[in-house]
Amino acid sequence: MNILYIIICIILFGLLIAVHEFGHFIVAKACNVKVNEFSIGMGPLIFQKQKGETQYSLRLLPVGGFCAMEGEDGDSDDDRAFSKAAAWKRFLILVAGAAFNFLTGLIIILLLYASAQTYTAPVLSGFMDGFPLEGEEYLMAGDEIVAINGRRVLLTGDISTLMMLANSDTVDLTIRRGGETRILKNLPLTLRDYEENGQTVRRYGLYLTTKEAMPLDRLRIGLYTAADFVRQVFWSLEMLLNGSAGFNDLSGPVGIVQTMSEVGTASPTIWIALENIFYFTAFIAVNLAVMNLLPIPALDGGRIFFLILNTLALALFRRQIPERLEGAVHFVGLVLLLVLMGAVAINDVYKIVT
Length: 354
Fold this sequence. Notes:
Radius of gyration: 24 Å
Distance between the termini: 14 Å
Shape: globular
Order of helices and strands: HEEHEEEHEEEEEHHHHH
Number of strands: 10
Largest sheet: 4 strands, antiparallel
Helix content: 40-55%
Strand order of the largest sheet: 5-4-6-7
């Protein structure tokens, strides 16, 4: 691994965390909620500066950060405490971190695609020799692949991903032909051995169309890519739940930095390496946004979940969930997350060593 790329990746990873916490910070300030400390990094203090009511800190470990608001984790007599802010303000503050991460990822994607000259569309241009499903009743050149097993194909990369998720010898393929949409039920589209350039390769046997990228195409592909990153989070969770992916497929900060470094090292030029690393950074940014909004205790999504529950309970029963109970749930969630992160980090190091 190239040490330069490792440094770049660590810096970018730290920036994503900084952006997330800055989202909480700037919206808290806008909502007139008191912020006691804004920190980038976790662990021992390296640098701090007091400005007004807020202490700005830089800490040793670039694997986290926080925006410590008054009354965030308990009662406070301060009128500007987070716990005393209106529910809609607390909601905005909690969502802001993920929103800033998502916007960061989207901006990176749009900038990367801004100079694209061509793109590959999910439109069939032909088939490999020996492809068995060509014909009027099956597939024809010019067909646009719209969905696989009812899941929308936004980008060409979705085809292989959705075929893998199908995990079956047959799929229901939705295509658009001549302005008409049709569904090919139980189509036996699977990986087969084909000859290509004198070598045997396993492919689906499809050739896709390359088109000139116009400005609107670049914008659409950028938006679709961001949407795909969101979908991939849920697809990954689905794979974990159905057993097609396991613990060994998880990666934490150590694994992410290693993967980004390998992506950079494998690139033919520094410029392409940076493009690939920033593409991966956008993927991580969107993933962080989505994962943080899942209703998991100790994460922003878990706190939003309790905020909604409390708002409903107050409106319907004029009572709220006891703070001690909510705090206990978040504490247990935090401990479990830390244990999981530690286990994943150890596994990442083991995979690097071996």
